[in-house]
What we know:
With 403 residues, this protein is α/β, with parallel strands linked by helices. The protein is 47% helix and 13% strand. The chain contains 21 helices and 14 strands. The strands form 4 sheets. It has an 8-stranded parallel beta sheet. The N and C termini lie far apart (57 Å).
Amino acid sequence: MTRNSRAVASPRVVNIDDLRSLARRRVPRIVFSYIDGGAEREFTLRENLRAFEAVTFRPRQAVAVPSCDLRTRVLGFELSMPVLLAPVGYCRVIHPGGEMAAAKAAGAAGTAYILSTVSGHSLEDVKAASAGPVWYQLYLTGGRAAAEAAMQRARAAGYSVLVVTIDSTVIGSREREVRDGMEQLLRGSFWSQLPFVPQLLGRPWWLGRFLLHGGLPSMPNIVSAEKGELKVRDAHTAIKRAAFSWEDMSWIRELWDGPIVIKGVLSADDARRALDHGAAALVVSNHGGRQLDGVPASLRVLPEIVAAVKGQAEVLLDSGIRRGADVVKAICLGARAVLCGRAYAYGLAAAGESGVTRTLEILRADVERTLRLLGCASVNALDQSYVKAPANWLDFAVRTHIE
């Protein structure tokens, strides 16, 4: 057993909060704040967690469940459980293995990995690292030409699904990151980085790996003919110059002949608009509370989106997943599966690939145990009868469905 494997082995790490605590000790505060923080006063970040607490279970007692089937199908892919790994940017800053480590762990667990445009590893290398399905998440960072080139590379490499994120017109004001120095680490000058050097020196294992693997990586999947690979320091500015709008779906649709997922849907109107533009699936998401602070929790609006879609597309959910019980609650309220981001980012920070593997092991065991305690033998048999949600969530969904 490797050092990383020992660090996250049970019973030392039994839940995602344990991985979070270990991550805090393993990486500089700058990096931990990037993983852990949200936008502005972090209201939506907290609401994502509180929403799951507001939903309670209604178990069927004394029901024998000799085995549980956790398998589900998402866009035609059979997954071993209803949990996919969400796109997380700058993973190579969290751990040198970064996106490749996460993709490898997801494939070994029998589920899908979604690669962020803002990746420190090439999309070809990430695809080769996974034995499972890998999807590509698209920002228009670098402009249309760079996005077109990335989509063509992704299709050639075997990526099967395109995920278009619609909630990042600009980057949210992540005050914790700014205060702790992430902006200076990624985009500052040598002199502006100096005040934060003690943080880095306080985590010698992280710093040694970081420097050994070349320091800040470039963005190998954002390539322009004029400037080559995009530098990390230019990424935020590039996003502002080339943010997604619905009009972009026409040329994206022409270039990508596979399924397209729209990520960042928080209203029935945007759900219907996504359907009008040919989306095969939607992700109900507030970007983990990292974009516009003050929007509702993803789980709270999930019933509204499910009612608006009326079965015309698959509905997924992210933001706030910390336990297998959260996964089950989301499925009961209409999600086909969930995406988790922070949960595995904690694992990546704590122990690289082993940490991501442990994240998935924890969530899988949680989901199975929750199903058994509910008296339900399959995730595909879950429905709203197994939970009690606040009435106003469901009342709004009913009105939306009628409209």
